[in-house]
Amino acid sequence: GQSLEQPSEVTAVEGAIVQINCTYQTSGFYGLSWYQQHDGGAPTFLSYNGLDGLEETGRFSSFLSRSDSYGYLLLQELQMKDSASYFCAVQAGTALIFGKGTTLSVSS
Amino acid sequence: NAGVTQTPKFQVLKTGQSMTLQCAQDMNHNSMYWYRQDPGMGLRLIYYSASEGTTDKGEVPNGYNVSRLNKREFSLRLESAAPSQTSVYFCASTLGREKLFFGSGTQLSVL
After folding, report:
1. A98 and B50: CB-CB below 8 Å?
2. With contact defined as beta carbons under 8 Å apart, do B94 and B83 qualify?
3. Is B7 helix (H, G, I), strand (E, B) or coil?
4. pLDDT interval class at A59 (50, 70, 90)
5. What span, in angstroms and rounded, lies between the C-alpha atoms of B34 and B89?
6. Which of A10, A38, B69, B86 could form a disulfide with B73 if both were Cys (CB 3.0 to 4.6 A apart)?
7. Which residues of A touch B94 (CB under 8 A)?
8. B residues 6-25 closer than 8 Å to A (CB)
9. Any chain A CB within 8 A of the CB of B50?
């Protein structure tokens, strides 16, 4: 089967950097994705790593190590609007399986 | 270009009633998914359809059925609703597997 582990909660202050880790166990791994979800909203795509290494998109970066079954999402220059839930997800065959999510609270 | 459209947005059912959640996408995507989201449980995959004409069970398929009516539409049916099916349901679609586009969700309460 598949499993993903990520911290349930992270807190930080505006302007800080935060890293959300994700470890996974799955068969037929293709890649690791990250999604953001604000309260009451739908998840929205942030980034995808199909190969080892770092992908950067503005203030957000995502990293993957396939040999360690590990990835992380790095959020820089945190803003209040970054307060949300963040989900890692793995492609397992033709399905996409999500972790339970990390709630990020950003304070001023 | 509406993206992924789900109906209804809210629904209240009595135990034992049936209903169908509708989902349509206008992005010509091959794959479509149904997830449920419960507090502290993340998004759990109910069923998915990798392409028109195929459907597969996900992590929590019991009590649900699906129909991939055509490339655009993927419906989720609850034959006999139970309180344990109270949840927020999301439909999603993707062309490949890297980036899912989600609908706005259906909040379902089963009394």
Report:
1. no
2. no
3. strand
4. very high
5. 7
6. B69
7. 96
8. none
9. yes
- Peptide bond connecting B61 to the previous residue in cis, omega within 30 degrees of 0: no
The DSSP-derived string for B49-96 is ESSTT--EE-S--TTEEEEE-SSSBEEEEESS--GGG-EEEEEEEESS
Per the structure block, which two tokens stand in for B103?
Answer: 């609908």
| A21 vs B51 pLDDT, higher one | A21
User: How confident is the model at residue A92, as a pLDDT?
Assistant: 76
Distance, CA of B102 to CA of A29 (rounded, Å) = 22
Candidates B5, B30, B52, B100, partner chain A, best to mutate (most A CBs within 10 A) = B100
Q: Cβ–Cβ of B98/A33 closer than 8 Å?
A: yes
Tell me which residue has tokens 């929205």.
Answer: A44
How sure is the predictor about B23, in pLDDT bands with cuts at 50, 70 and 90? very high
Instruction: With H, G, I as helix, E, B as strand and everything else as coil, classify residue A77.
Output: coil
Residue type (1 letter), A22: C
In this predicted model, what pLDDT tens digit does every residue of A61-71 receive, in sequence order?
Answer: 999 999 999 99
